[in-house]
Amino acid sequence: MLDFRLKVFHTVAHLLNFTKAAEELSISQPAVTKNIKEMEAQLGIRLFDRKAGKVVLTAAGKTVQGTADKVMELYGQLEFDINVLKNQFGGVLKLGASTTVGQYVLPEILARYHRAFPEVKLSMQNANTEIIEQAILTGEISLGVVEGKKHHPLLSYLPFIQDEIIAIAHKDRKYGNQSHLSLQQLEEIPVVCREKGSGSLEVLEAALAEKNLSLSDLKVEMMLGSTEAIKSFLENYDCIGFVSIAAVAESVSRGEFKIIEIPEMEILRSFYFVHPVGIADGLSASFMHFARHTYNQRL
After folding, report:
1. How much is the average pLDDT of 92-100?
2. Are 92 and 139 within 8 A, CB to CB?
3. Quick one: 215 exposed, middle or buried, by C-beta within 10 A (0-12, 13-18, 19+)?
């Protein structure tokens, strides 16, 4: 049903390599070139150029890429809707999720998906963003949900939900009565944060860089591998921690931790669905559609 030339373009546009696109699509490189030339002829404009031996998108190519991304997503949703009507759901879906979204966002969605489609065997690997991306590239998992920025040209990143990284302190420790901090004060207070390779740390570093600061400007006491570890550390040490608001919402509402505002620095990020470049397989597409719908119902 899907125009194959659009699929070829979409793959080349993300890989920017005709040979790799041919491998991804299981066709010959001349076939890739032929489909691209036919699409350019149909549109009456060049979509790719070569600069210094590298394939680059033209301005028109970038415009077409934006539309192609939307078409691919819509096609995945169409497959999902048709399969629901036909009641043809079964198989194995191997998921991977970065630590925060895997612990605090996806479990409820997984439970609902399992109730709706009991014939689908689900499994989920939980690790930091870097490890999840590698697991997708090696074929260990089919679909990931990660945080932070887009990293790899062989992967497609589709927006899922937004999140915010906030500063917190335990109510019974030294900074539990602190309501806000300036950037100057932030440099003087002990801090605990996530480990290298985590999306949470990457987003924090990016926010600091926008203020001409780096992690080395802070008094980082320790880097830990999960939000729960950070929360336990804060219960027993006088410092503040940077965590996802999704991960501590309940603890804050119970009064166990206090949010410390940093008016000069807002740390926003997105969670992304990630799969190999190209059209997501049917089960992955179904889960993405279901997860978005389920999460929006909660809001």
Report:
1. 90
2. no
3. middle
Give the integer Cα–Cα distance in Å for 299 and 289: 16
Q: Are 76 and 285 in contact (CB under 8 A)?
A: yes
Quick one: CA torsion of 188, 193, 196, 197, rounded to 10 degrees?
-140
Cα–Cα–Cα angle for 281, 283, 287, nearest 5°?
115
Q: Are 150 and 272 in contact (CB under 8 A)?
A: yes
**Tokens standing for residue 286:** 């179904």
Report the sign of the C-alpha dihedral through residues 188, 194, 200, 202, in that order.
Answer: positive
Strand partners, 244: 165
9-23 b/e with 16+ CB inside 10 Å = b?
Answer: bbbbbbbebbebbbe
Question: pLDDT digits over 126-159, tens only?
Answer: 998 889 999 998 888 999 999 866 678 888 888 8
**Domains by residue range for the chain, with CATH:** 4-70 (1.10.10.10), 88-159+271-298 (3.40.190.10), 162-269 (3.40.190.290)
> At residue 224, what are phi and psi to the nearest 5 degrees?
-125, 160
- Contact criterion met (CB below 8 Å) for 201 and 99: no
